[in-house]
Every structure is written in structure tokens, then in C-alpha cells.
Amino acid sequence: MGRIHLRILLASFFLLGARVWGGFFSDETRATRGPAVLKLEAGVRALGMAGAYVPVADDVSAVHWNPAGLNQLPQSEIQLMQGRFFEQSQQFVGFARPVWRAGERETWGGGVSLLSMDRFDVLEDGQAQGSARPQQLAASLSYSRPLGPNLWGVTGKYVHVSTFEQVGQTGVLDLGVQGRAFNHWRWGVALSNLGPAMNLGTEKVHPPTAVRGGGERTWQWKGGQAVMAVAQIDFSTDDTPLGRFGAEYTRALGALWSAALRSGLRTHGSNRLSIGAGLTRGNLDLNYALTPNDDLGPAHRIDLTCRFGKPLPQEVRRTELIRKAEWLMAEDDMGMARPVVEELKSLSPTNSDVRHLLNQFEQRFVESLHPETLFRHGQDLYATNSYDQAAELFRKLLLVDPAYPDAQKWLSKAEAQSLKVKTAALQQEIDKKRERLREELIRQAKSLEGKGDWLAAMEKWKRLQSMGESPALVQKQLDHCRHKLCDLADAAWSAGEQEKALDYLKLAQTAGPFPRAAARTTEFETQRRTRNTQEAKLFYSRGVEAYNAGEMEKALPLFEKALSLDPNNKTVRQALNHLREELRIPAPRP
Fold it and tell me: Which CATH superfamily is domain 528-583 in?
């Protein structure tokens, strides 16, 4: 083998990494800028959507795509990624942690990307010169924080490249911003790899600077289903503009599990199509992506993401206070809203949502701050029976001028009248509901009576009785249902269904004492005992006959049956125990 120039190997290495991981080069003359490690696309979720991720970027891989997105993470997060393709491997480790500082949440993150080739022998004029394993490493540190209604972020990267005998290093910068539009859309723009060229031997290697921007929209349905669509365009210093389109379908699988399917498309390149899938359980995500490549074969990537820790308590409190203040302002309760707004102001004065809420509150509160105007307007509202609004104005007046004459007296009058009106309205509403319920229960009870379902009808009348509805009428209907249950008991007893008959009688007495049911119960119990005694004698006599004939095995069940019918019959019990002794059968446990 002839002399192999290391710089040719290195250039080929750069080109190979760029072709595989950049994924959007249209011919052999483009994408010659490096280092290739800066073109590695971290985050398997993003790779499954063909890299259409700048407006989304809501996990640790935002370190690569758009550092502004780090501030969307509610918890600390770590991500491990592994990729293998064409005798090369890539590893990525990312970490992010949100903190609270100066009244706002900010997020710090970092990551390490390593691209390495398999080790190979270096020959010169046929002689072995040793082995080489070119490697490229990029270590990054990111910071993200809100800026007005949007998020912004910055990432600094240290890049190190080593070959057989050459080493180079440089530093680059990423900038990003994310925001929302029209309530449903997210947008994002990122400037990547901005920095000086790297000296590598006698050559200068320029970073692959790129500007990326796009938008995202998500549709959600019941059952934990959602579809996300993303469109993005990239402008690179060493390639033509590239369009990326991605989609993700997610579905909840119970309380803890969810699954996702992803696909993506690039407008040109040898690896235009990407597909992927993900599985989430609680705070763990497992993702896989496959990118076929016409020239180099498929590239497989897999990563594991873990979220840990709790959301920032200050941010949770801020969200609660904003919701409470908005509700109070919607109710026009400005007096109660003031302490909530004051707490928000001290907790997070620079937050855009808080500042917007403060502006709204001050504007509405300042509209009527003149004491005389507030007092007269309150009296006018009181005269028109608008007691709640009058009380609100008097509260404002006391906040503006606590010593204003008669303000407290009028506030007390307005609050008392308001309570009186509300109580009367509530009582009226309760009365209407009780009347509707009464009519419905009567209708249902009569309908059940018409179907012969006396037990269910009796339950309806019992409920009406508990409501205090027409005691005489309800008692009459209850007795009617109980008489019908007694009739059913008589029919069941005549048909030999003793237990069923007794059950009917028992149900008839659940609504209180009922003489007919009580008398029938006593009568039926007496008849059943008499009948059981007679049947017991019959079985006993048959058992004696079998015993005298020496058929002890036949006598045993006859004695047992007799005893079950007449448990207090000592003669039967003695005969059964004697027989068990002869058969050597142990007596049953009591």
C-alpha cells in the first residue's frame, strides 16, 4: 500500500461524519466544513423526526438543537445516547438542572459528544507506522432563561480533534430563542457553531455555522392521544437550504406508561427518511431511531432519558398565585386579589406573565380610586340591589381611604344584604331541585309499581319518606308495596319455596314494623318447624330400618338428614353418634 496522507484520512473522516450525521448533503463537493462532531445530531427523539426539532427542543438534547428549550424542563434530566454507523460510533451524555434565581427559573445544562472511528493500521511505503483511531470531542455548557414572553439560551462548546499525529481544538457558540404564537404554535430559531477556524496541521478547519428555524403545532384528543407536526428549514454556510419535516404520535398506556411513533423527512440527501419510536414510564424515556442511508447503510441510535427531582417550589407557587389572581379578577374581587398580586410581585417581579397580570390589576384598580366617586357609585349600586358590586366598591374605598366616613357602615350593610339575597336564592334553588327530585321519584315509583317491581318501588317511597314528603301519602304507598310483598311470600310458600317466602317477609319489614309480615313470619316459621320435625321422624325411622338390616352405610346419611331437619332431637343425635362410632367416623367439629 502506498503512502497514506493523514490529512487525506482526516478530510475523509470529516466528510464521512458530515454525510452521515448532517444528513442533508446533495453532492460530493459540499459539506466539507468540520469538525464533524459539530454536525452530530443528539437526541433520538429528534433524530426520529429527521431533526425537525428546533421549535420543540424540550429535553436535554436542546443543548445541541436550541439551548433556549432547556428552560422548558420542569425537573432535572440526564440523557445517555449511543449510535453506531459505518465503522464509527457516537456517544452523547447530556445533563440539565433548573434553578431559581432573582425571581425567575433558569436552567443550566451540559453535554459531551464523542465521535470515533474504529482503530486501523497506518502504512507508509508498505511499512507499518502504528495504528490510528481518530476521535472528535465536543464538550458544551448551556444556559437558558426567559426573556419577556420568550425563552433564550446560549451554549459554549469546546471542540477537540485528534488523529494519528495531529491535534486541533477550538471553541464555538450557539444561540437560540423559542416562543409561542396564536396560542397553539411554538416557534424556534437557533444559530449554531459560531466561532473561529481550528488549526489542524497546516490547514484551517472552519466550523459548520448554520441558522435553523421552524414551527410546531400539537393536536390533543381524549384518551391521552396527541399528534405533533414540525416544519423546519436550515441555512448552512457549506450547503444549500434544507427542509425538515417531522411528526410524532403519542398515546398514554395507562397511568404510568406512554408510547410514541415518529417519522421525518429531509428535502434532499442520501438519508432523507427517518423513523423512530419511544416508550415512557414515569420519569424514564427509552427512544430508538433508524435512518436509512443509500450510500453508507442504515444508522441506528438509541438513548435513555431520566428525569429526577421535584419541580421548583417557587415556580409551582407562582403558577398557583397567577391562577388565583386571574380568578379573583374575573370575579371582580380586587380587594382579595391585591395580597395575591403583591405576593406575586415579590416572588417573581421579572416574569412576563406576572408583569402582564400586574399591569391588568393596576389598570382596573386605578380606574376608580377617588374616594367620593367610589362612595357615591357604591350607594347607587346598593339602591339598585347590586349588593355584591356595591360591597366591592366600599372595600376599594377602605383600601384607598380607611378613615372615610360611613364607608365601613355601608360595607356592612351591602355585605349583609348580599348574604341575604344569596341565601334566599340558594334556598329557592334547593327548593326547586327538591321539587324536581320529588316528582321524579314519584314517577319512578309508580312506574315500578306498574311493572310489579314492588321492592324497587318501596325503596323509592322510602327515599321520599326520608325527604319528609307527604307522610300520609308515602306511608299509604309503602304499605301497599309491603302488602304486595306479603302476597308474593304467600305464593312462594304455597309453591314450596320456604326461604324465598321468608325473604319477602323480611324485606317487607325493612321500612318499619308491619303486622301482616310479622304474623306471616311467625306462622311460616311454626309450619316449617312442624314440617321439619315430621320429615326428621321419617328419615330417622328409615335410618333405623337400614341399621337393623345391617346397612349401616345407608343409615348414616338418613340419620344426618334427620338431624339437619331437627337439630334439637336428642334421640336422632345419639343414634347418629353411635353409628359413627361403629363406622369409626370421627365426629365433626362444632
Answer: Tetratricopeptide repeat domain (1.25.40.10)
